[in-house]
Amino acid sequence: MSTILIVDDYRVHLRMYRHILRKHGHRVLLAEHAHTALEHLKAEAVDLVVSDVAMPDMNGVALVKQLRSDERYHMLPVVLVTSSKQEQEELIARNIRANAYLTKPTSSRELIDTVLSLLGGRIIGNRF
Amino acid sequence: MLNHILKEQSEHFAILAETWLALGATAVSIWDNQGALLKQWPDELVEPVSHPADMVAPLNTGELVLGELRIFGLNGTVARERLVADSRLIAHLIRLEDDIEDMTAELVETQDQLLAMYDLARSTRSHLDLSQTLESLVRITTRIANVQTSFIILNIADTYEMAAHPTGLFDDVVLLDLFQHLNDNEQEQVLERHTPQPSLLPVGMYNLCILPVQVGSNVIGMLGLINRPDGFNPSSMNLIRAIAGQTSSQVENVLLHRESLEQTKLQTEMDLAARAQFHLLPQSAPHVAGLEIFAKTIPAMHVGGDFYDFIYRPGRPFIFSVGDVAGKGMSAALLMAMTRTSIRSKANFIPRATPEMIISRSNDDLYSDFARMHRFATVFVGQYYPQERKLLYTNAGHSPAIYRPAGQAAQLLEANGTAMGIAPVDSYEHQTLMLSPGDILVVGTDGFSEARNPDRKMFGLERLLHLTDQLAHYPAHDIAQLWFDEINTFEAGHPQDDDQTILVIKVVSDDIY
User: Fold this and answer.
1) Do A15 and B104 make contact, defined as CB atoms within 8 angstroms?
2) Which pLDDT value is given to residue B503?
3) How far apart are CA B53 and CA B55, in angstroms?
4) 3-state secondary structure of B310
5) How far is CA B287 from CA B221, B290, B393, in A?
6) CA dihedral sign of residues A34, A37, A39, A41
7) Which of B141, B330, B377, B492 is most deeply buried (CB count within 10 A of its CB)?
8) How many CB atoms lie within 10 A of CB B179?
9) In this complex, do A19 and B105 lie within 8 Å of one another by their Cβ atoms?
10) Cβ B104–A16 below 8 Å, yes or no?
11) d(Cα B311, Cα B322) in Å, to the nearest integer?
12) Contacts of B108 in chain A (CB under 8 A)
């Protein structure tokens, strides 16, 4: 069982992701803000972060930057969830150091496949 | 569940507990139904309070007891009433949380199904070839329906079209056998190893779901899903039915596209045939001394069975023909080409040919072909000697042929022989007319006399005779054009039923040479 932290300001998404990941046996932590996510990371050992990109105050890109600037989270797998393929391509082009990208709406299979790939060490597009 | 709610609603539970503590309670705790402490307030307490609680209220949803709310250091009627109220509030929260979880599960599943259907539609919409479409459908169906194999078998015009993915797990013969056994039912069917008909399941299949593939209201085949690890439960069937619906609509699109391509091809072929037939007809009338000659044909369909022809060589009489092969469309057009060619060759190559010889020999040539196709052709052949203004003609069952001597009433030239193709041998004869300036000969086809108005009334021969009288002072070209105009007016938008062909010959000059 892995511990996965989900960050999204839309609580419906938080619940949906949690439902999918729990069904596959993962422990899930939820954060409605990037700041809360950072507090969770300090308090608990997290194996993977799934974060929305568009969030108020600190967005998903800023969260990734913050994580990568802290050596404790250099290798922490992060999945960014974008609202469009175009946004995803822009982020890839900007060399945001996320490990994988998903586009909303995300199917259970896509989420699980991506999470399993990263947790299993089969890193999808490690863009460090 | 209780533990989950506690974490989910930790802030609200904390407020509840703080209120109890403010009222004088020394501790507040929540326990699960196994007797394990889940949470205790104040937070400073490290160990569970050892002495019995002063007040205890069960936390339950319906009949199910999930745990207890325990209050220490406080008692009394008011406190007890509050405790009951709090435990009910918590029970309500638990139910709401339960509902939200159920709704979330539904939402996730619905979203997954919508995404799967979108995926299926997107992946197949670019294919217009049937086999590519079927391959694409089964490939995606196997993935999104989470089955070991999916297959489609269609029966289109007694030809089987088939695709399976992945291939090789089940032999095509096995799948076709299933199709033949189960397709007659034309209904959704689920077979499991434990159902009463396990013998229908071939070796290697532990469950099977088949659904009809429909085009319009007709079932033309089936979609089969083999070996779904989770079984074909009601929830998965929603998606599977949606896949079958999408499959049906995609197959229908491809078949419609195929039909439209075939129609376009046929249209092109018909256009070519129409052009070929048009070029079989004389592109202009010959110049024959003392005559105005005009002819025109309008087929009811692309191609038709009517024809006219002119054969005029220096030093020989002018021969013309008008014919009508029974029926319309391509078969009539083929026989028309044969008849016209046969008449032309007889007119050209029989020494001192007369109209009855031309028709009789052509009938000899073509009778067996006409008989085989159950068709016949009416033909009018005329032979005109300009110097004598003498017209010989043979009318093999043709109508209308109208002769209007100058200054007299138009009259029908009745048939003096049966139509070609009716009998193997016919003793045709010819009639002779000595023409004078102002005389008119109009040979039409029954597309004029049998033209109908919207009330289905026919134009008839009487009207044609009367029309010819009225138009007698016009040149040949105008007479022909006014026939067409009059018939168009009569039809009043009613579609043309038959081919319409007219030949008008008008004797115009006394001064021949």
Assistant:
1) yes
2) 97
3) 5
4) strand
5) 65, 9, 20
6) negative
7) B377
8) 21
9) yes
10) yes
11) 12
12) 16, 19-20, 108
Distance (Å) from the alpha carbon of B108 to chain A's nearest alpha carbon: 6
A&B contacts, CB < 8 Å: 24
pLDDT for the residue B199:
66
Residue of B nearest to A15 (CA): B104
CB–CB contact A107 B112 (8 Å): yes
Whether chain B has a CB inside 8 Å of the CB on A44: the answer is no
Mean pLDDT of the B41-64 span: 87
CA distance A103 to chain B (A): 12
Supply the pLDDT for residue B512.
47
Report the chain B residue with the minimal C-alpha distance to residue A18: B104
Q: B70 is written with which tokens? A: 């325990």
Q: For residues B344 and B309, is the Cβ–Cβ distance under 8 A?
A: yes
Evaluate the omega torsion of the peptide bond into residue B424 and state whether it is cis, within 30 degrees of 0. Answer: no
Which pLDDT value is given to residue A43? 94
Encode pLDDT of B414-441 as tens digits: 998 999 999 987 789 999 999 999 999 9
Rounded to an integer, the average pLDDT of B258-277 is: 87
B83-131: pLDDT as tens digits:
999 998 888 888 888 889 999 998 998 898 888 888 888 877 777 788 8
* pLDDT computed for residue B353 by the predictor: 92
Rounded to the nearest angstrom, the minimum Cα separation between A111 and chain B is 11
CA distance A112 to chain B (A): 12
ipTM of predicted assembly, 2 dp: 0.88
